[in-house]
Design a protein that fits this description.
227 residues; alpha/beta; Rossmann fold; six-stranded mixed sheet; four-stranded antiparallel sheet; 6 helices; 29% strand; globular; binds adenosine-5'-diphosphate; binds magnesium ion; ABC transport system ATP-binding protein
Length: 227
């Protein structure tokens, strides 16, 4: 299993009390598997991704990424682990306005080091693989919302992660473009043998995913299993 989340508990301070965002959440995702987490706004989906990404430390429970127990890692070690093993696609495509599509990927590569020529070729290949052949030198404002989301996905994959975490990728897209993005996620999950968790508040486009789980008030339950 590339991602193993066990009995996670996460609370946020809330005045004199605490708000329980994750309440005994467990989830396992294998390489090449796409799991959708559905649930209403405020149910804890983004919190789950933040903990899985090691951006937030849970109050209790374990997070294993590609076999590494992240509980004992320092902040610097977690940052290194994210760089090497975790791809993250946030709700808002947070692309840098001044960079072209290929440069968005190279900026991420730069932090990892290695040969620039090879990286440039790998970045161009990835962009072509997500359907952006011929558009690699466009800047964000020259791309549609769906295309920006594709750059985001390519960038998240560019470090060859074991785990891909995707937050509401279809939120800003119309039905057809949303369906295409989920289809793309299913495709890259298989091609790159990455363990993908996609969070979404809508229950459309779920025919492409291997498993659907539902989040309600910080608790996770199986909705359907078709692996
Ligand atoms: P979802 O992504 O399903 O909308 P979130 O994980 O964002 O849910 O939020 C779960 C709960 O935690 C909500 O009640 C939200 O208001 C609360 N919450 C999220 N982030 C914070 C934070 N940084 N500080 C305090 N409360 C938070
Ligand atoms: Mg959210």
């Amino acid at each position: 299993m590339s991602l193993v989340l066990t009995d996670l508990r996460l609370t946020y301070p809330d005045g004199d009390r605490v708000l329980t965002a994750l309440d005994g959440v467990s989830l396992e995702v294998a390489a090449g598997q796409l799991v959708a987490v559905v649930g209403p706004s405020g149910s804890g989906k983004s919190s789950l991704l933040a903990v899985a990404a090691t951006l937030l430390r849970p109050d209790a429970g374990r997070v294993l990424v590609d076999g590494v127990d992240t509980g004992g890692l320092s902040a610097a070690q977690r940052a290194r682990l994210r760089l090497e093993k975790v791809g993250i696609v946030f709700q808002q495509p947070n692309l840098l306005a001044s960079l072209t599509a290929v440069e968005q990927l190279l900026a991420a590569h730069h932090m990892r080091g290695g040969s620039v020529r090879r990286q440039r070729r790998a970045a161009a290949e990835l962009l072509a693989a997500v359907g952006l052949d011929g558009k690699q030198h466009r800047r964000p404002h020259q791309l549609s919302g769906g295309e920006r989301q594709r750059v985001n996905i390519a960038r998240a994959l560019s470090g060859r992660p074991a785990v891909l975490l995707v937050d509401e990728p279809t939120a800003a897209l119309d039905h057809d473009r949303g369906a295409q993005i989920v289809e793309l996620l299913a495709e890259v999950t298989r091609q790159h043998q990455v363990a993908t968790v996609m969070v979404t508040h809508d229950t459309e486009h779920l025919d492409q995913v291997d498993e659907v789980v539902e989040m309600r008030d910080g608790r996770l339950s199986a909705l359907s299993g078709r692996r």
